[in-house]
Amino acid sequence: MRLIVLGATSSIAAATARLYAADGATILLVGRDGSRLEQSAADLRIRGAERVEIAVCDLAASEDAERQLQGFADQIGGMDHLLLAYGILGDQGQAERNLVAAEEILRVNFNSAAAWSLATANFLERQGRGSLIVIGSVAGDRGRRANFIYGAAKAGLAALVEGIAHRFADKGPRAVLIKPGPTVTPMTEGMTRTGALWAKPEQVASIIYKRGTRGGPVAYAPGFWRYIMLVIRNLPSVIFNRMEI
Ligand SMILES: NC(=O)c1ccc[n+]([C@@H]2O[C@H](COP(=O)([O-])OP(=O)(O)OC[C@H]3O[C@@H](n4cnc5c(N)ncnc54)[C@H](OP(=O)(O)O)[C@@H]3O)[C@@H](O)[C@H]2O)c1
Questions:
Q1: In this predicted model, what pLDDT tens digit does every residue of 188-213 receive, in sequence order?
Q2: Is 150 a residue of the active site?
Q3: Dihedrals phi, psi of 76, to nearest 5 degrees
Q4: Per DSSP, what are the bridge partners of residue 81?
Q5: What pTM, to 2 d.p., does this model score?
Q6: Residue 171: which domain range?
Q7: Which of 36, 86, 155, 216 is buried most deeply by CB count within 10 Å?
């Protein structure tokens, strides 16, 4: 198993990579911070990975995702799974006042992620097998005043990944969108992170790991978010718009 992780310094990605390492996978960690990637690579080798390489890259700045993706795959002798994990939450209030900040949220979470997803889809289609696993968010299921710019990017990404899964339906490769609920990671630092709805990165990671090889094209993490979001999506706007959620 050869895994490429885009955004490998993410807490959810790191927890997922540990599960692949325990299985003896060969892993390429891609991210912006070389020293953190090196630390993570050393940890994964101890945990059983066959081989771990790193690539330092600003994933939102790529101008040729297909060529760069081929380079990543060549670095570890091929690609079976790709986990797209990077993202930014951004500051919703600031982004409403300053459209440059809004565009940055959309560019990182949608435009660049879409380019990597499409490049991966083409690679997997040529190869006839393998999995594209993309981390979306429950925030993409219904726009809320607290984070609808980030949510819009994740909603766009959801449609894109579902479309790739549809394109693959009668072919060998798989595409899976993982939709985590609120998770205790650096992204949510500063929020009040108590209560039963908050997950640990390891809980989300175990769902990502399982769904990389089996199951349908969309997975909520933890799974109970499927039912919560079913209710939230179907609330009439006259009720929804009065809620502080
Ligand atoms: N935490 C939550 O509550 C939650 C809920 C739903 C979905 N998600 C999604 O889960 C994914 C993982 O996030 P996380 O919770 O694990 O948060 P995290 O630990 O803060 O990870 C986010 C990662 O994205 C990386 N990143 C951002 N922009 C990048 C770029 N241009 N190039 C390369 N790397 C970049 C960051 O790298 P640097 O360290 O270099 O900045 C960071 O490692 C994200 O897609 C997020 O939207 C999170």
A1: 999 999 999 999 999 999 999 999 99
A2: yes
A3: -120, 20
A4: 3, 131
A5: 0.98
A6: 2-240
A7: 86
